[in-house]
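Postdoc handover notes: sequence design on the structure in folder B. Input tokens:
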């Protein structure tokens, strides 16, 4: 028996009842899904596999997708609570920077670069709580120096805040990164910061995100002789492909994905597994985005098929490796007949990136679904352990 499981389905039910006792049938009609599907979501027997479904549910319930995901508000998780203590200071630093305030540097250029490199290493292993602790001071120090270093730190802040669930603040940090990159006219960091901006937009703004990516691709194409710019333009194509899929514009998504595939084939996987800014653009990363897009289209068999052609370990970023195992696990769990394999994938996802896995609401829901389906059978030790680390208490 699940003692505590604050899931997406539980929030859907809460807001449905808050909306004048809206019935499941009415919610299903507004969302474009079946009543049975809504019932299974609310009971935890089925997960929400598509971002577009989340957007439709949130719109019907008159809430945000973040409200349904519980992002930035989930209690009881040590990683989130540790990072949450630092968020007000990060917010204050961003406000200070956006208001034009600049402090005198307290570190040498070499010391600042070393600290930025350390923050980047934390980003690559997904230690977002440790990043959050260092970002307030690092932001104001980098702002005092300016240049690409400032854009780089603001990019780090946007990434950290987004993964912790503070997407509104991530958007602020991304805007700061864009401004910093434009001031020094560095096309590679301009492309990277635009990518951070697109990634930080909420799911509901998929149309805006796609347009922003398209605009950046046009504006920065003249600088594509720079390999760093090419890598980031490839990332923008991937982001545009996913957001276009969420919008239902599959033809546009297909074009962006084809362009990213072509560029990745030309560049190859980065030798160090990271490439410019650690984004890892290349055939392997394109394959991971193809898995995510197939999942968004509800093609779970296609996700599993693609997974057989991808070796995620060639990428240095732990969150990209986790994305592989999470998408594979959710696809395996979709039918309800391959739960043991799905659990194995989730174990791998948590092993490579424990913090983002624990913080991911879709991962949490998938684990709850496995536990719900295992109630009539013995719950495995692996499932009990992974649920416990996510704050989900299962009865013995």
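Designed sequence:
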């Amino acid at each position: 028996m699940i003692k505590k499981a604050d899931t997406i389905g539980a929030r859907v039910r809460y807001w449905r009842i808050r909306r004048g006792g809206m019935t499941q049938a009415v919610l299903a009609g507004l969302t474009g899904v079946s009543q049975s599907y809504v019932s299974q979501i609310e009971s935890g027997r089925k997960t929400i596999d598509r971002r577009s479904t989340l957007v439709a549910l949130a719109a019907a319930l008159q809430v945000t997708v973040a409200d349904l995901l519980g992002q930035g508000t989930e209690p009881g998780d040590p990683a989130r609570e540790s990072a949450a203590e630092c968020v007000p200071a990060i917010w204050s630093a961003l406000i200070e920077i956006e208001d034009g305030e600049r402090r005198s540097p307290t570190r040498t250029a070499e010391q600042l670069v070393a600290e930025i490199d350390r923050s980047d290493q934390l980003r690559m292993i997904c230690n977002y709580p440790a990043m959050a602790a260092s970002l307030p001071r690092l932001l104001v120090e980098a702002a005092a120096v300016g240049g690409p270093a400032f854009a780089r730190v603001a990019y780090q802040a946007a990434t950290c805040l987004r993964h912790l669930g503070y997407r509104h603040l991530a958007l602020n940090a991304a805007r700061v990164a864009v401004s910093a990159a434009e001031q020094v006219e560095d096309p590679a960091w301009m492309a990277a910061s635009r990518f951070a901006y697109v990634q930080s937009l909420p799911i509901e703004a998929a149309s805006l995100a796609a347009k922003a990516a398209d605009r950046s691709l046009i504006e920065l194409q003249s600088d594509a002789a720079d390999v760093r710019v090419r890598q980031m333009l490839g990332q923008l194509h991937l982001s545009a492909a996913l957001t276009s899929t969420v919008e239902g514009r599959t033809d546009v998504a297909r074009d962006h994905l084809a362009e990213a595939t072509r560029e990745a084939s030309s560049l190859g996987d980065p030798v160090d597994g990271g490439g410019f800014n650690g984004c890892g653009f290349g055939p392997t990363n394109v394959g991971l985005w193809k898995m995510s897009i197939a999942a968004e289209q509800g093609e779970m068999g296609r996700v599993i098929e693609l997974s057989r052609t991808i070796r995620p370990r060639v990428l240095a970023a732990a969150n990209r490796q986790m994305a592989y195992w999470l998408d594979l696990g959710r696809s395996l769990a979709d039918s309800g007949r391959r739960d043991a394999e799905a659990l194995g994938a989730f174990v791998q996802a948590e092993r490579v990136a424990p913090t983002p896995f624990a913080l991911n609401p879709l991962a949490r829901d998938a684990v709850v679904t496995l536990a719900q389906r295992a109630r009539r059978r013995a719950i495995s030790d692996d499932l009990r352990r992974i649920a416990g680390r996510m704050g989900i208490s299962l009865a013995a």
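Context for whoever picks this up: The first helix runs from residue 8 to 18. Don't rerun without checking with the PI first.
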